[in-house]
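EI: anyone free to look at a 383-residue chain?
SC: sure, send it
EI:
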Amino acid sequence: MRPHTIDFSVDDLSDLRKRLARTRFRQNLPDEDWRWGVPQPWLRDLVDHWLNDYDWQATQAELNALPQVIGTAGGLHVHAFHVRSPHPEATPLLLCHGWPGSIVEFLDCLPALTDPTAHGGRAEDAFHVVLPSMPGFGLSGPTSAPGAGVAAIATAFADLMRRLGYERFVAQGGDWGAFVVRDLGLAHADRLLGAHINFPWAVPPPGVEDPLAEATPQERAVMEDNERVHGADQGYSIQQETRPHSIGPALEDSPAGLAAWLLEKFHTWADTREGLPYGVDRLLDNTMLYWLTGTATSAARLYAESVPYGADPRVWGRRVEVPTGVAVYPYEKTRAPRAWLERQWNLVHWSEQPRGGHFAAFEQPELFVGDLRSFARALPHRS
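SC: here you go
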């Protein structure tokens, strides 16, 4: 792994501006809302802001202020930010994002994670943070050959941590990151001090007449509500599982199209009771990491690469014995009953948060950091 500096060319940014200026918008409908996807007035405002006010150079400078490495780990191309704590006995922490996110989800958490004494915590709460882009995503992409599924990514991240000097570490993830954490817990259990997820996914117990028999009434209601709200929200997943190369050209040719495809999920899957929980510039930071690296297709391809993983009994027929923490956020779109998770993970920590949705660290950085600290305090041999 070698040091790296992000430096996209003036030509890349000039091309983006020309494409934004030539965006072909469909005709508006009266009183548009989010029912059928991104409302056209919202997208028009976003494109106008992106073209006339957004400053990628400021974001690039922010990212380049963080130490970063790039190279090959576990046979895959990987870029990672490696931010060591000023506290030498800090716990090594691997953060794993998912789709349609990126490392941007965690940026506002890094100061409190690495330097807790400056942010309301204690020295023993400190983490040495390794924040990679998922292979195929952003600065770790695009992938150039098949095979970059969940298991391969877990192997790459285990190798990355060893190359950075961490034989043992805590792994945290949401969305696809939670599946990578699970694979680390199964295939590389000796390397993990602990596993922490904010995507409480588990499969139903096999061979039972009523899989929800162990669910509480509240859990049943939550699952029914999730099915009602998100049951019709699977088109993106089916498309990316089956034909990522058909949607890819549209996403890589039109920045407005890419933004609509990605950012609709940041609205639909978030806790928006008090408005959108992140600023428009941060949403554009996330979009830029897909656009400038040309990774919309390879990121979508992770769905196709990982279809077998979702039904593999070698994955779901075993229990992760690594000490595991689960944080449940009220607007998370996928939440299994606790009994299902206890069957598949060695739960030592369970928390139910008052606010937040699918993008926990992005939406609620203070709650996310606080829960991760609470989980890590209970782990033996943290350093």
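EI: The radius of gyration is 20 Å.
SC: 👍
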